[in-house]
Amino acid sequence: MEDDTPWEAGSFDTILCYDVLEHLVDPWSTVKRLTRLLTSSGQLHVSVPNARHPGMWLPIMFRGTFDYREEGLRDVTHLRFFGRRDVHDMLRAAGLHVNSVEAAPARWRAVELAVRLSRGKAAEFVAYQWHAIATPLEGQVSRS
């Protein structure tokens, strides 16, 4: 079963989950299992596509199709979708302190300008991905 890993609790200082969790049936359980593998000062790094990005909802709104793709936001293999708050809540539910949940750096000047003019509020809608870093809450790391 997925609960069986060759590593003992507290085996890792850093675990990276870049573009992984959206492909899993139950990413919440996976994050909980990964939390147990962190040292007490370890970090879990997560990156997931932003479900609030216009590239996610514009096709369904204007063309009546989700318009799955081979890659990107509407990748045909994505099973789960996350907004900023969803990422934060998933990490907290796993017993982690969320150090940061930030938008991936903007690629276009117009996007950078929109974020600046809105004092950061536009990031919720123009961010392509969310990058999060979390650490175990005190007492949450189990020792075997």
Question: For this structure, what is the CATH homologous superfamily?
Answer: Vaccinia Virus protein VP39
Number of domain modules: 1
**Rg, please?**
17 Å
**Mean pLDDT across every amino acid position:** 90
Largest sheet: number of strands, sense, barrel closure: 4 strands, mixed
Element-level helix/strand string:
EHEHHEHHE
| Amount of helix | 25-40%
The fold-level CATH name is Rossmann fold
End-to-end span in angstroms?
18 Å
CATH architectural name? 3-Layer(aba) Sandwich
**C-alpha geometry:** globular
Strand tally: 4
User: If strands are numbered along the chain, what order do they take across the biggest sheet?
Assistant: 1-2-4-3
* CATH class categorisation: Alpha Beta
Low-confidence stretches: none
Q: Helix/strand-derived class?
A: alpha+beta
Contiguous helical run count: 5
What can you see in these coordinates?
This protein has one domain: 3-Layer(aba) Sandwich (Rossmann fold), CATH 3.40.50. Strand 1, helix 1 and strand 2 form a beta-alpha-beta unit. The chain contains five helices and four strands. The chain is α+β, with helices and mostly antiparallel strands and 144 residues long. Strands 1-2-4-3 form a four-stranded mixed β-sheet.
